[in-house]
Amino acid sequence: MTKDTLPYRDAAAVMLLNADNKVFVALRIDNVAEAWQMPQGGLDKGEDPEAGMLRELEEETGIKPELVEVIARARQPLFYDLPDELVGKVWKGKYRGQRQHWFLCRFTGQDSDVNIDTPEPEFRGWKWAEPADLPRLIVPFKRKLYEDVLQEFADYL
Prior knowledge:
By secondary structure, the protein is of the alpha+beta class. Helices cover 17% and strands 31% of the residues.
């Protein structure tokens, strides 16, 4: 099976804003580079994208759903392809990239409500970043995706 014939993995993702309109980003544990990302993850079979986004956010950051207010949802899923060297190595080789359902949310809690030391930690650090900085913080193969996310939610930022 070639990359072009592999399907996309269904996923949900969140651009989480604090009271200062800065965006939550975190460093993956398995990434040796200084590449930051917004919380995201695969959807379970039949899972509603908003429910999946809230589940992934809590699993990755410890942020409880009651501390999150949904502001907007992207009009359509946004995509990214894995670089050729990662196809076949991640997600057991089943996917070429992700089809992500993006949400823009407001974090109504305090920084002390964030806990990346979860039962299955994915991140080794986190911070609040300026939205305009997102494309330069992410791994290069997701840069276009983050530009698309910024464009999608530009009216709210």
